[in-house]
Amino acid sequence: MTMSQQIPQHIRAEIVGRLGRITLIRPEALNALTRTMIRDIHAQLLEWAENPSISAIVLRGEGRAFCAGGDIKAVWEAVGRDEHPGGFFWDEYLLDHYIHHYPKPVVSLMDGFVMGGGAGISILGSHRVATEATRFAMPETAIGFYPDAGGTYFLSRLAPDIARYLGVTGARIDGADCLHCGLATHFVPAAKLDELEAAMAHGPDLETALSEFSAHPGESGLDRDRGAIRRVFGREELAGILAALDAEQSPWGEQARSLVAGAAPSSMALTLLQLRQGAGKTLAETLIVEYRLSLRQTRSNDFHEGVRARLVDRSRPPSWSDLASEAALLALFAPLDEAELPLS
């Protein structure tokens, strides 16, 4: 039996057998998260945490995306009106933290695009199911930003060269890659997701269902190109990475150079610093710092230019600022004069 209720602003919440299912239903925007969606997801999870009939949560998206990020254009518009941009990030990062520490398993069906804020609500959960249609990316350096929504935490726990590659370039990877590097915990063919969900809802237990439906994903491009990735992103400093990338003669190198050419230099340097500083820290510690970075970076020229060029008028390429000094980048990490994100 399925109980269903419609929550405003593109969220559908249902109880299906032993599962609490939340579906993002904003397919025209690739299920990008609005602030209202974030709040509604958080409220629903709080309610279901106390429901003894629900043993696990499933998150999924309608259409061709799980969730392609947060509604960053709305943040850009708020900054342009000289409004404080912190509310969106405050609510988003508190939700990310709650999902990571949720008292029940949270299973994300990462079918389609999984980017930015969509990565935060999925990768920070306990179970992440990739498919052949999964397209994961943290493309924030292309808009003058950095990989937030817990990116500091989950990227810094990957192999360092892979973390730098994904964070600096914003490269898209597929489901096989996600399983290979540890972003996904399982791989299930997209055509089997409904059967998987039914087995999780009505079968003997969650782990058995996931095991029974898991399949081999095929070749991982990350694994195939790992030698080249190590040659370039085995280095810690941006100058060394760019020099090695210029010298890299491979199809992978050509693609990576194209991605780097469209990214803000300071955002790439900030991402490398972020990953170094995030290593070994708790999720709470990294989200507190991300909140500081987000408040400051959204007021920067690079963020204004990146969002304008990629998401708003698209009339001309972004005009990036010169590469910031390390001292200027470190200043972005400093405690705020205003309220900090309330995580211990």
Q: Could you explain the architecture of this structure?
A:
With 344 residues, this protein is of the alpha/beta class. It has one domain: Alpha-Beta Complex (2-enoyl-CoA Hydratase, Chain A, domain 1). It contains 17 helices and eleven strands. It has helices spanning 35-49, 72-80, 86-100, 117-123, 151-155, 160-169, 175-181, 193-202, 206-213, 221-224, 226-233, 238-247, 251-261, 265-278, 283-297, 301-312, 326-331, and strands spanning 2-7, 11-16, 19-24, 56-61, 65-67, 106-110, 113-115, 127-130, 135-137, 173-174, 186-187. The strands form two sheets. The protein has a seven-stranded mixed sheet, sandwiched between helices. The chain has a four-stranded mixed sheet with strand order 5-7-9-10. Helix 3 (86-100) packs parallel to helix 4 and helix 3 runs antiparallel to helix 15 (283-297). It is globular, with a radius of gyration of 20 Å.
Architecture blueprint of SSEs:
Layout: E1 2-7, E2 11-16, E3 19-24, H1 35-49, E4 56-61, E5 65-67, H2 72-80, H3 86-100, E6 106-110, E7 113-115, H4 117-123, E8 127-130, E9 135-137, H5 151-155, H6 160-169, E10 173-174, H7 175-181, E11 186-187, H8 193-202, H9 206-213, H10 221-224, H11 226-233, H12 238-247, H13 251-261, H14 265-278, H15 283-297, H16 301-312, H17 326-331
Helix pairs in contact: 1-3, 2-16, 3-4, 3-15, 6-11, 6-14, 8-9
